[in-house]
Fold this sequence. Notes:
This is NERD domain-containing protein. Helices cover 37% and strands 24% of the residues. By secondary structure, the protein is an alpha/beta fold. Helix 1 packs across helix 2. Zinc ion is lined by residues 217, 219-220, 222, 234, 236-237, 239.
Amino acid sequence: xxxxxxKMSDELQMLQALDRRMALSPKDHKNYQHLLKGFRGEAQFxxxxxxxxxxxxxxHDLLLEHNGTVxxxxxxxxxxxxxxxxxxxxxxGEFFFEQERFFKIPRQEIMNPLHQIGRTAPILTQLxxxxxxxxxxxxxxxxxxxxFTLFHAQQNTRVILxxxxxxxxxxxxxxxxxxxxxxxxxxxxxxxxxxxDSPYQNRPVYEYDEIRKGVxxxxxxxxxxxxxxxxxxxxxxxxxxxxxxxxxxxxMEYKLLFPNKKVTVSAIDEWCGSxxxxxxxxxxxxxxxxxxxxxxxxxxx
Length: 301
Ligand SMILES: [Zn+2]
């Protein structure tokens, strides 16, 4: 059972929106590619976990704090006898461990993910004890990219290589037990403790005027769409979406990129490059958002 799904961080959503509407700086572009790769790896592992048939609770993308330390958990499974925590890595290429250090070939040092989980383990244990849950926690680093190779790999039960993932999941599926209310309470507690705002997020720098206005295709990401009736079609790929959904997404994108600007009919008209009728924009704003202010000065939240 999935208790909490993964969603793109605000930072990644912003970079994705900006990338389609302007040229990102080399630094932002690199950061975007890095975050996107990480997110895709995690989403790929989520899909595998979604097929688990044993009794369990899944929680993805948790941000927790204990004694002033903020730490992130990619995926967490609550099983009857234990909790399993996964640190998901989408590394591609050839790597090796050497004396507690982790390198990409030929010799580019990368933060050792085993140290990362080594730091998380005692903090999470303490946090759960503080809330009255005394359950063993098993930590794994899972390398999900099929093009990941680890040289001189010594057997380490904490490391799950791409070729070992299926076997790991089969073993979990062979566990035949039931969960009880305590497990549910534990899951609810973790979700309650989850922090929404990550202190690690950066905000890219951009100005309203430098951003291209228009409607971006949800399939190919190009601004090549046309509106026909209540449908939006892409002229480059075969993407089609309902007009209402497109407008709601445009508004959410606008709010994300410009949290200090007011959402008005004319602001969204300009944002979509006047591609959608004012009547439709007005209808959707009224239907899905809350109207504030009055008459000509009204805006939506
Ligand atoms: Zn398209």
